Amino acid sequence: MSSFDALAFRQFFPFFNNNPDWVYLDTAATSQKPQQVIDAELAFYQRQNSNVHRGAHQLSQHATAAFEAARDKVQQFLNAASRSEIIFTSGTTAAFNQLAFGLMDTVLKPGDRILISALEHHANIVPWQLHCQSHGVQLDVIPLDPQLMPDLDVYQQLLALKPKIVSLTQVSNALGHILPIGSMLQAAKAAGAITIVDGAQGVSWQVPDVQLWPVDFYCFSGHKLYGPTGIGVLYGKQRYLEQLKPLLGGGEMISDVSFQRSSFAALPARLEAGTPNIAGAIGLAAAIDFIRQFDARQINQYKGELLQQFAAGLSQIPGLRPLTRVEQSAGIVSLQLAGEHPNDLAMLLNEQKIAVRAGSHCAMPLFAALQLPGAVRFAFAPYNLPAEVDVTLQALAAATEILR
Ligand SMILES: Cc1ncc(COP(=O)(O)O)c(C=O)c1O
């Protein structure tokens, strides 16, 4: 049994006091926010609000100091070698759009290949597609093995084709499966590829040490890590970030502009055009302070116990077909009810005030490969309680009874 005190952890989140009737199992879409994150954003707007980097006045200097301190916090969190390797974005999707745009023509040339897995979120598919065809770059996909993990034999064969980029999710958002990211990245590096990790789901499972991991770019969103929406991080090794062509042009990212040409500022400003999400960055720093108070291993063990309890209960309900293999999941269980559309099950759970997701979870190619219309996703977090698992199982039993 984990010694993690979930009830004490839950007290930090005002959402639960304000919504005592709800069971929130949609943390993979967005996490709830602790009071200290809400306070940090509020305090910025109430006391400090001013634009960064441009004011001669003291208020702007204070706002700049708070914003840049947030960058330092993220640098420490990921153990990045330098603060200029931390680029603030609006989220993981924005980070991938910057990567796909910025690597074409600079790193990627016609005939080059990019390798992703069949478990990717659309954020690690569509931005590549937007540019691949017009630049003559090929997008290859590692298929699934019978455990619904990347097929590592085929991965080796695809690496032999010498992809320039290997871009993988750390944790599947649709199934919860944790990829063997360490060995996959090592193999990619051995094949000479630039490596990218989508940490949107993974960062709350295991924070990378980006100097130890063979990872060149790592992206995550604040809102899935107890932080605000609209703020995310693109980490990149300096030498690779320097090769990225900026996706957005405008203020603050230049060193000189004439009507003929512009030259760009040094990192990180070069990749942060326009007024950034200052309050969001400060909120993200508060979220990092918050989560670092707790032992990640205890949290993961506790989530594992919730998953085991849920899986044991599911096996007693006829007709349910879990797609997730619980022992390889970071906190998600996705399932199907034979012959029924996932939306119908989710709708009945919603009537019982149980918040889950149904559909293809921004991973349409995955569900096409599985020949399924989608799944119902139950995403557990450390603020969920064993009693909520029981309530959910009872609601599921009642809902399947109605549908069948
Ligand atoms: C694995 C994964 N990648 C990328 C994203 C996109 O994140 P955002 O919507 O915060 O940009 C998500 C969001 O669900 C995700 O789960």
UniProtKB/TrEMBL annotation:
<dbReference type="InterPro" id="IPR020578">
    <property type="entry name" value="Aminotrans_V_PyrdxlP_BS"/>
</dbReference>
<dbReference type="GO" id="GO:0031071">
    <property type="term" value="F:cysteine desulfurase activity"/>
</dbReference>
<dbReference type="InterPro" id="IPR010970">
    <property type="entry name" value="Cys_dSase_SufS"/>
</dbReference>
<dbReference type="InterPro" id="IPR015424">
    <property type="entry name" value="PyrdxlP-dep_Trfase"/>
</dbReference>
<comment type="similarity">
    <text>Belongs to the class-V pyridoxal-phosphate-dependent aminotransferase family. Csd subfamily.</text>
</comment>
<dbReference type="Pfam" id="PF00266">
    <property type="entry name" value="Aminotran_5"/>
</dbReference>
<dbReference type="GO" id="GO:0030170">
    <property type="term" value="F:pyridoxal phosphate binding"/>
</dbReference>
<keyword id="KW-0808">Transferase</keyword>
<dbReference type="InterPro" id="IPR015422">
    <property type="entry name" value="PyrdxlP-dep_Trfase_small"/>
</dbReference>
<dbReference type="GO" id="GO:0006534">
    <property type="term" value="P:cysteine metabolic process"/>
</dbReference>
<dbReference type="InterPro" id="IPR015421">
    <property type="entry name" value="PyrdxlP-dep_Trfase_major"/>
</dbReference>
<feature type="domain" description="Aminotransferase class V">
    <location>
        <begin position="23"/>
        <end position="390"/>
    </location>
</feature>
<dbReference type="InterPro" id="IPR000192">
    <property type="entry name" value="Aminotrans_V_dom"/>
</dbReference>
<keyword id="KW-0663">Pyridoxal phosphate</keyword>
<protein>
    <recommendedName>
        <fullName>cysteine desulfurase</fullName>
        <ecNumber>2.8.1.7</ecNumber>
    </recommendedName>
</protein>
